[in-house]
Amino acid sequence: MLHLQVFTDGSVNTKLKVGYGAYFVVSGLNVSIDLLKDTVKVKRFVQTSSTKLELQTLLWALGETVALANRSDMVLTVYTDSQNIISLPGRRDRLEQSNYFSSKNKRLNNYELYQEFYRLTSRLNCGFVKVVGHQASSKKDKIDRLFGLVDQVSRRALREDFCVRRGGVNVSGNVLNIEKTLLCK
C-alpha cells in the first residue's frame, strides 16, 4: 500500500480576488526541506477568496496526485490549516440533505467545490490533519516546518505577482508605498 502525505496552502489578495495555491507530496516525513523546495507546485487562481482558494488548491493537488500515482491502494494524509476543509467530511450529510442551501434558503457560495470534494474523496482513502499556521519557530515540529514550505511558497508567489504585475500600484492608479514596501520584501 502506498502512503502519501499531501501538504496544501494558499495565499490570496482579497481585494483583487487573486490567489496562489501551493502543494507538495511526500511518501515519508523524514525528507529534507531543502530537497523539497523544488518539488512544490504553485498555481494561480482568479476570482477567488480564502475559503475558495483552499478548496481549489486541495482539489488540484488531489487530482494531480491521484493521476500521477495511478494506484487504487493509496492512503493519503492531507495537511492543511483550513478549518473549512477539516470540517467538510463531518458536514457532508447535512450539506447533501439541504442540497447545499443555507438555513436561509440561500445556495452556499462554494457548493460546486464542496460537491467535487465529496466526489473525489469518496473514491479515496484520505484523512485530514489540521496544522496550526503562522506560529513561532520554537513551537514548530516537523509537520509544521514541512507545512511552512507551502505557506511560504504561496505567499511569495502572491507577493511577486503583485509587485511584478501591478508594480505596487492599486486599481485607481495610486502608488501604495506602504503596501508595496510590505508586499515586495
| Major sheet summary line | 5 strands, mixed
Q: Provide the number of structural domains.
A: 1
What average pLDDT do the residues reach?
Answer: 85
Tell me the overall shape.
Answer: globular
Class derived from helix and strand content? alpha/beta
For the termini, the CA-CA separation is: 44 Å
Parts with pLDDT < 50 across at least 5 consecutive residues = 167-185
Question: What percentage of residues falls in helices of 4 or more residues?
Answer: 40-55%
Strand content: 15-25%
Number of helices: 6
Architecture, according to CATH? 2-Layer Sandwich
Full CATH superfamily name: Ribonuclease H-like superfamily/Ribonuclease H
Going across the biggest sheet, name each strand in turn: 3-2-1-4-5
In CATH, the topology is named Nucleotidyltransferase, domain 5
Number of strands: 5
- CATH class, please? Alpha Beta
Rg over CA atoms, rounded to whole Å, is: 18 Å
Q: Identify the quaternary structure here.
A: single chain
Give the helices and strands as they follow along the chain.
EEHEHEHHEHH
Describe what this molecule looks like in 3D.
With 185 residues, the protein is α/β, with parallel strands linked by helices. Strand 1 and strand 2 form a beta hairpin. The longest helix is centred in the last third of the chain and has 25 residues, at 142-166. It has one domain (2-151): 2-Layer Sandwich (Nucleotidyltransferase, domain 5). Helix 2 runs parallel beside helix 4. The protein has a five-stranded mixed sheet with strand order 3-2-1-4-5. It has helices at residues 33-36, 50-69, 83-97, 111-122, 142-166, 177-183; strands spanning 2-13, 18-26, 41-46, 74-80, 125-130.
